[in-house]
Automatic annotation (TrEMBL):
Its cofactor is Mg(2+). One of its GO terms (molecular function) is isomerase activity. Keywords: Hydrolase, Isomerase, Lyase, Metal-binding. The keyword GTP-binding does not apply. It comes from Paraburkholderia silvatlantica. It holds the Pfam family FAA_hydrolase. Signal peptide: none annotated. This is 5-oxopent-3-ene-1,2,5-tricarboxylate decarboxylase/2-hydroxyhepta-2,4-diene-1,7-dioate isomerase. InterPro entries: FAH, Fumarylacetoacetase-like_C, Fumarylacetoacetase_C_sf.
Length: 256
């Protein structure tokens, strides 16, 4: 089992995560505390689960090699080396920059296999912010490991919010604020599959374990940043997830 009573966060330097109230979490974050990712299970990203992304592809979805829009979730793995937490410093590997994909992360509470949509929420422990980062690229059905699985390319947190605090995960506002730029706004309401249907479709062919995370998917039009940028990602009124982007060769560690 993976359970969350309130807000689960893992402060950098502490051996174990804390399960605290929203007020206590706010106090910790206000001190500038850095955090580790509050989860340690597998993290699965979901592609083409945003209606605007499918619309942008247009007729390309019906051409070779795809021939049709996907009939099942298109997933990819964010391996362990990609996990990072609040106040992460992420290296921008080249001139293409890094796409800051903000997504709702669904945290699994108990082993989920062949779960029906009407019972799916019984398997959810809580939700978290996931900055699903990638080097901009055009591949759709075959996500490239070198574009999506670089070190610290999956920033999670600051906390896992208990399921009881989220009345409707399919109606949440998403915002990406890049320092010095215009804010990017999206919503989970544009998802092709909502949380329950996504869990039902995924667990029809694979088992999700307690502590695993599956993202609802990155909204179309996510901003691209270069080294020197700072970004804050928020969902609803949750505490924002903050990231600093640095040039290759810059020492990683404490914030500048």
């Amino acid at each position: 089992m993976f359970s969350v009573a309130d807000h689960l966060l893992h402060v950098e330097g502490e051996a174990l995560p804390r399960d605290v109230s929203a007020a206590a979490m706010g106090g910790l974050l206000a001190t500038g505390a850095r955090c580790r990712a509050p989860v340690s299970g597998a993290v699965y990203g979901t592609l083409l689960n945003d209606r605007h992304a499918l619309e942008a592809l247009g007729d390309a979805m019906n051409a070779l090699p795809y021939k049709a829009p996907p009939r099942a979730p298109v997933l990819y793995l964010k391996p362990r080396n990609t996990l990072a937490g609040h106040h992460a410093r992420v290296v921008v590997p080249g001139s293409e920059g890094v796409e800051v994909g903000a997504s709702l992360g669904v945290v699994i509470g108990r082993t989920a296999a062949r779960v029906s949509a009407h019972e799916a929420f019984d398997y959810v422990a809580g939700y978290t912010l996931v900055a699903d980062l990638s080097v901009p690229h055009a591949s759709v059905y075959r996500p490239s490991v070198r574009f999506r699985a670089r070190d610290s390319f999956c920033v999670v947190g600051p906390a896992v919010v208990a399921r009881r605090h989220v009345a409707d995960p399919d109606r949440l506002a998403i915002t990406v604020n890049v320092e010095g730029g215009a804010a990017f706004h999206a919503t989970t309401a544009t998802s092709v599959r909502g949380v329950a249907q996504l869990l039902a479709d995924v667990t029809d062919f694979m088992t999700l374990a307690p502590g695993d995370v599956i993202t609802l998917g990155v909204p179309h039009g996510a901003p691209v940043v270069q080294a020197g940028a700072r970004a804050a990602i928020s969902i609803g009124d949750w505490a924002p997830l903050e990231i600093e982007f640095v040039a290759a060769g810059v020492a990683q560690g404490a914030r500048a």
